[in-house]
Amino acid sequence: MVFLVAKPRRLTRAMLMAACLGAPSFACAAPVVNLPELDVTTTTPLMDGPQAASSLSPQTLRQRRLSSADSAELFARQPGVSLYGAGGISSLPVINGMADDRVATIVDGVRIEPACPNHMNPALSYISPDMVANATAIAGITPVSMGGDSIAGTISVERRDPKFARRGKILFTGWARGAYHSNGNGWEGGLSTTVASDLLSLNYSASYAERGNYHMGGGGGPVLSSAYKTYSHSVTAGLHKGGNLLALTFGQTDTPYEGFPNQYMDMTNNRSTFVNGKYSGMFDWGSLDVRGYWQRVSHAMNNLEDKGGHTWNTGMPMNDDSRQAGYSIKATLPLGSWNTLRLGNSFDHQGLNDWWPPLPGSMMMGPDTYHNINGGVRDRLGDYAEWEARWTPRFHTLLGLRNDLVMMNTGNVSPYSTATMGMGGMMGMMSNMAVTDTAAANAFNAQDHRHTDVNFDVTALAHWDAAKTFSLEGGYARKTRSPNFFERYAWGRSRMAATMIGWFGDGNGYVGNNNLSPEIANTASITADWHDAGQKRWDVKVQPYYTYVQHYVNVNRLATYANGFGLLQFVNHNAQIYGINASGHYQAWSSPAWGTGVFSTKVDWVRGQDLDAHTGLYHQMPTNGFVALDETFGDLTGRAEVVLVKRKSSIDALRTEPRTPGYALLNLSASYKWRMARIELGLDNVLNQRAYQPLGGYALGNYIARGNLMPVGVMGRSVNLSVTTSF
Questions:
Q1: Can you list the residues of the chain whose pLDDT is less than 70?
Q2: I want to staple 680 with a disulfide (CB 3.0 to 4.6 A). Which of 276, 383, 542, 722 is the partner?
Q3: Whole-prediction pTM value?
């Protein structure tokens, strides 16, 4: 939320605490993260739990964007967070063993839903790391004000707020950045410029990223279908008067192509056009934050060259058209000196058409259009109330209640063809496919597709500062998530149709289930925090958690294909997920002669079990962590880290999930700030170790091209160079 005063100036700590209305812990625990060369003048932090949340520091943002153009990579070192491998700029964040739709991913205050049967265009793919000004991951008990319709945690990123000049002055400022990655021959560029008075502000920002197929370490060869190209533009206009701010952002993101190593298809075009607006203001009774948005996504899939390519009469065209619109209103009300009440209302609409045009001359993909989702509608209306109370200087609580009404519907569907052909050979196979999908379409069309889910969430948190060097926080949350379009409405039963559905990278085919119930997760978590009295030199946090999920959306196997992959259908099972997140840092030295040296580490351990199928849950990250040393000496910074991942042995047998060996990777980076420029140099996977992604699935691009089935490989050695200038 943004608060402005009559004359723009930086908020002091006292002003910040006053703006948070007596809620210094939950509401003000996560400091605002602004890139130093583009400091936002007047902002207050996102509301989150003080120990379950981790806000990325400016240094972390710089280090992570040096290695990748994928905004999800910004969170790769945060406790409880791992990444679900996909395309080069489309990784999916995983929080405490739960991924994708189970994580509330918020960009500029907007919950963006994927518009693709393979989830190739997740929310974080629409904002480049260069444009992220603050970023927060909540891996514990999530306050209801941070979103519903999710059962894991929350990922939130925000662009920079408009900047304004001092009264009577004109401000002209900006920055530009270029970067190069040796592995995959990747290039990136970004720029932003602002012209502003004390009343009006106008900003233009742009970014570009392109990379070829990367290579594995240890002579493992290229990972096919890992290339990508993307660029974006946005214009933000801001109006500031008194204690009010109005900002409108118009933007467009284009991805001409993006390969997906673990999918049968690739993305051959994706265009997002959006308008975001927000108003924030301070009043005698409290503060108000209002947001509204509209987005259109035009999405196309087909085969890139690694998977055989496509022409006007070859390949397999698949198209999606999505419309999203909505608003959110949040009011923060002080109730005396030690109590705060937050009230909110939001509405989110998504309309989706997913159709596969006929391929000229193809007997298998024609002669008609395959309608996968026909006029799908998913509307979510949410209301919440959140009360924060400080009972004593050392003990305070947060209680939240939320209701989300999720309404879904879709029209009738149709296969490529309802005609049958003579049996025998290829004709027989195509005839069987047509009969299978015709029967499936008829069965689907005979059902009522309307669903109205009434979901309730409850969050209860308590924080106790037991001593100057120890604090304890614990809580319980009941969170609910309704199924997405494809979990409920994907209907094709033929092998070709079913294998086009699924965002899991496992090679299987998926069928929806119109009878799915919403997931209900009950989570208990506690965080113990040991630290020095000043909370600067050292810190150790340990967070055990347990989640029991009713109606967890998992799968049953309906059939097994000749290559070992299967036809799977989404079903409701019961599941449990438990684990421990631990992190810490220690300032080993700080002096004019030696600079400042800080050791940091994290260790995550998670296990997930399907209690009905008696198997492991899919894509649970094995024990992993890192040990790092950061050195700062004047304008020079450096980092050496070792990333450690244990062998993946706990798998989901229903999906024939691959096991992966453990590995250790050494990464080095350094940066130097000189006047108005910053030069950064990094070396990832210094020893060029050969390794495989535990959550990357199978390398289907290599499998299609060469016939060898293996997990997706980790990128080998890469030299990364970045230069940023500001003015």
A1: 1-52, 420-434
A2: 722
A3: 0.90
